[in-house]
Amino acid sequence: MSDSAIIVAELTVPAREAPARAAATAAWLLDQGVIRPEDRPDPLWRPSPYIPGPAAQAALADRRRASDDAIGDGVDLLDQRRIHHPGGNYTPPGCPHCAVPLDEDAHTVLIRTWFDREEPLVTCAHCGAAALLGDWTGQWAVLVSHLAVRFTNWPPLGDAFLRELHTRLGPRCRLIHHRL
Question: 0.85 cut: is pTM over it?
Answer without folding.
Answer: yes
